[in-house]
Amino acid sequence: MGIFSRRQTDVIEPTPVAGAGVPAARASTTGAALDPTLRALTGRWTIDRPHSRIGFSVRHAMVTTVRGAFSDYDSTLYFDGARPSESRADLVIRVASVDTGVEQRDAHLIGPDFFDVRRYPEMVFRSTSAFHEGGESFRMTGELTIRGVTRPVDLQLDYLGSVLDPFGYERAGFDGTTTIDRTEWGLAYDQRLKNGGAMVSEKVRLQFDISAIRVTSSPS
C-alpha cells in the first residue's frame, strides 16, 4: 500500500516500545504517480502501539458521540514499494480489549447484544486491494469479519509521511477511516427512543491512527 513514502529527514520524539502489526493492503495504483521513495520502503512493518490507536465512534441517543478503542491486536504487513499490488496485510483484534472509558458500557459491548465475545472473541480484517487516488490519498479494500460474518469494506487512507527517529527506527504514519452499518455484521442491538430514534446508531465509524515501524531482520 502506498502509505509509506515521502519524508525521511525529520526526527520525532523517541519511543522504546513497538507492538504488533498494522493494516496495509494488497495494492494497485489507479494511474496516479507514486513517490519514487516508495521503493526504498519495501519490507515488513509493525505498529508502534503507544503512538497508535485503532478505534471507533458511534452516535448515542441521537445527540452525542461515544468513542472507544481496542488495545489488544496482532497484525502483519508487507509493503512492496516497487509493486504495490504485492503488498498485503492482516489485522486480528481481540474484542474483549474494547475500552470506551465506562466499565458498564464495555461489559455491554462484549456481551450478546454486540460482539458476543464468548462465541466470537476476534474481529479480523484482511486486505484485498488498494488504490493510489493521487497525492497522499489512498483507498484500501478488504474483508472485515465480526461475529463470524465477513463483508467487504473500503478504507480511506491519508499518508502522513516517514521519518527516522533518534533510536534509529524508520517510521511511517497514516490515518484511515471507514463507516459501516453494524447490523450487517449481526450487531443488531435495537433499543429505541420515545421519538422513534435509535439509542445506538447503526452507523459506526472505524478509525486507524497508525505509527508503523520497519521490522529489521535479527542477526543469524
Characterize this entry briefly:
The chain has 220 residues and is mostly beta strands. It is 3% helix and 46% strand. Strands 1-4-5-7-8-9-10-11 form an eight-stranded antiparallel barrel.
Per-chain topology:
Blueprint: E1 43-47, E2 53-60, E3 64-70, E4 73-79, E5 88-94, E6 98-99, H1 103-109, E7 122-134, E8 137-146, E9 149-164, E10 170-181, E11 200-214
Antiparallel strand pairs: 1-4, 1-11, 2-3, 2-11, 3-6, 4-5, 5-7, 7-8, 8-9, 9-10, 10-11
List keywords for this structure.
3% helix, 220 residues, mainly beta
Commentary on this structure:
The protein has 220 residues and is mostly beta strands. Helices cover 3% and strands 46% of the residues. It is built from one helix and eleven strands, in the order E-E-E-E-E-E-H-E-E-E-E-E. Strands 1-4-5-7-8-9-10-11 form an eight-stranded antiparallel beta barrel. Strand 9 and strand 10 form a beta hairpin. The longest helix has 7 residues. The radius of gyration is 18 Å and the shape is elongated.
